[in-house]
Write a structure and sequence with these properties.
By secondary structure, the chain is an alpha/beta fold. Helices cover 25% and strands 28% of the residues. The chain starts with a strand and ends with a strand.
Length: 386
């Protein structure tokens, strides 16, 4: 990677009225000037965007795979291919979301993805690991197989985190399980973001979990009982708090009217847009896997095989942004932070915004919101022929 780069004649998504030059050094944004203005910055190779819009890269913190890759299986060559695919769809960083499996298998997966995170992929950056299980409710496991679910144990988390050298950044947990509240406190003390989900918890238990350090709701409204007028439950407790909430903007996991109600109820900076995509994304309808579960995609919708239980999604991240804009009747600029700034801030990533000192994870779009270019840490990793 060259020491520096200049992106010339861009329209920043936050200030479209003037053309700007963006200066990048050693993978970080280091300055801005009006287009063509002489500066004291060194002369670097430049890329002329000719008035295209510059946005922060997308950070997908809840992702199980794509294009035939399931994160519960190890394949270095396919991981590299996936990284390039994600970059071609605007994702510049992501977490590898692992579902319940044997403890030994999860440890091996954690070790593999930790090494990948410490190295460099050719496209999108692997920023950490998300464990969606084994500490979830068997009554709300959804498409995650129940075979390897277990009660929360601090010692198990320690073993997983030791295997990853600290790369576990996010865990999903059902707070009503024995030992869950203690595990939430432990994880929070180690700056692991705890998501509440796959749960039957009532209002009081959920509030206690939030008090203990939980910071996120895993795909709000899915794999949890719905709110009742006299029993607000986990959904009511989450909405009656300052917790961040994951939302899947496909109009399937949550009805568009529910998405609008949630967006009216909570502050916009609490919304985390995710794909929850499985290995089936980017492929045709058929039978695939989510960990040890068989899933089937019919009409682009992913189900646990031989059931009507939703199993992740095939949602494209750029399409999710467009869906959010349409469903919420808001501009692209207004909903875009759900997919960039908000998750980056929650997970303490130095990205998600176009500011001096931030990692230069950047996307250029044309007037029709077609992706034109992707940069990851200042490296040009994708260019479309439009």
């Amino acid at each position: 990677m060259t020491a520096g780069l200049i992106l010339r004649n861009v329209k920043l998504h936050s200030a479209e009225s003037q053309l700007t030059d963006v200066f990048i050094e050693h993978g970080l944004i280091c300055g801005f000037t009006p287009a063509g203005e002489k500066t004291g910055f060194p002369y670097y190779p430049s890329h002329d965007l000719d008035g295209k819009y510059l946005y922060p890269g997308i950070f997908d913190c809840h992702l199980h795979g794509s294009i035939g890759v399931d994160f519960n299986y190890i394949n270095p060559e396919k991981l590299e291919h996936l990284s390039l695919y994600l970059a071609s769809r605007g994702v510049t960083s992501f977490f590898a979301s692992i579902v319940s499996d044997s403890e030994e298998k999860i440890k091996k997966l954690c070790q593999f993805y930790a090494r990948a995170a410490e190295g460099k992929l050719g496209g999108a950056r692997l920023a950490g690991i998300h464990l969606e299980g084994p500490w979830i409710s068997p009554q709300q496991s959804g498409a995650i197989a129940r075979d390897y679910l277990s009660l929360p144990q601090i010692e198990m988390l320690d073993r997983f985190q030791e295997a990853t050298n600290g790369w576990i950044k996010y865990i999903t947990i059902a707070p009503e399980l024995d030992g869950a509240l203690e595990l939430i406190e432990k994880a929070a003390s180690e700056n692991i973001v705890v998501g509440l989900g796959h749960s039957t918890a009532d209002y009081d238990v959920t509030r206690e979990a939030i008090k203990r350090g939980a910071r996120l709701a895993t795909h709000l409204g899915n794999a949890m009982p719905q709110m009742h007028q006299r029993r607000p439950g986990i959904v009511g407790a989450i909405l009656d708090s300052d917790l961040h909430v994951e939302l899947i903007f496909d109009g399937i996991h949550l009805h568009p009217a529910i998405l609008r109600l949630i967006a009216k109820t909570i502050k916009p900076d609490r919304i985390i847009g995710i794909s929850d995509a499985t290995m089936a994304r980017g492929l045709r309808d058929g039978v695939y896997s989510l960990g040890i579960s068989e899933i089937e995609v019919k009409g682009g919708v992913s189900f646990l095989k031989n059931s009507d239980v939703l199993a992740g999604s095939t949602l494209d991240s750029i399409q999710a942004i467009e869906n959010a804009s349409e469903i919420l009747d808001s501009s692209i600029k207004s909903v875009y932070p759900f997919f960039s700034r908000n998750p980056a801030r929650l997970f303490s990533q130095n990205s998600g915004e176009i500011c001096v000192g931030m990692i230069a994870d950047l996307l250029s779009f044309n007037e029709d919101f077609d992706l034109c270019d992707t940069w990851v840490s200042g490296k040009h990793v994708y260019s479309a022929v439009l």
